[in-house]
User: What shape does this take?
Amino acid sequence: MDAKSLLASFTCPLIPVVVIDRLDDAVPLAEALLGGGISALEVTLRTPMGYDAIAAMKSAFPNSKIGAGTVCSEGAFDRAAGSGADFIVSPGATDRLFKAAANRGLPFLPGAVTGSEVLMAMEYGYHTLKFFPAEAAGGVPALRALSGPFPEISFMPTGGITPDSVATYLQLTNVSAVGGSWLTPQHLLAEQRWEELRQLALDSVASVTQISEERLM
Ligand code: 3PG
Assistant: This one.
């Protein structure tokens, strides 16, 4: 399955970008987010337990879609795949990462914000890309401008997106999902407030449901 089909299969276009500091938090957090209507999580490899967190989530929820984020090397790509990640997200892209993606056959969202980066991804056959850091790289106006020369490219923006700005991103025709850490505030995670995290997911999903329905019309 490619990244386009993967994102299209999600009932909810919000992808929490998750940083796990304690491995024990992985399963209850996944339970809270999935229970709140979230279709897929991106577990970053910014902490050493990222790989084990992915494995634990997949073991507890085998049918869920758990991706690995901040994948910055071939080694990390292979290890994330070995941990059971369903998809791989990178803040950028290199020839080596594209090679790892071809070897593994996993859905891969390479990062791209400039015309040259988009063209590089297209040369490797990728048309669904991460747009990071979204706000710092120009946000909604930049994505709208990229739809001109690259009408066949769709983006998953992340980086600096807030509950207030998420709707404007989702209204863009070249945005297929939006990611970010606002769905997993660090203080709620640190205090293991799973019910509040589930409620935040429920509220966030509800707030974008109308946009999602309009997009399908
Ligand atoms: C990412 O890795 O995609 C971003 O760091 C998430 O950005 P945010 O924390 O600003 O949502």
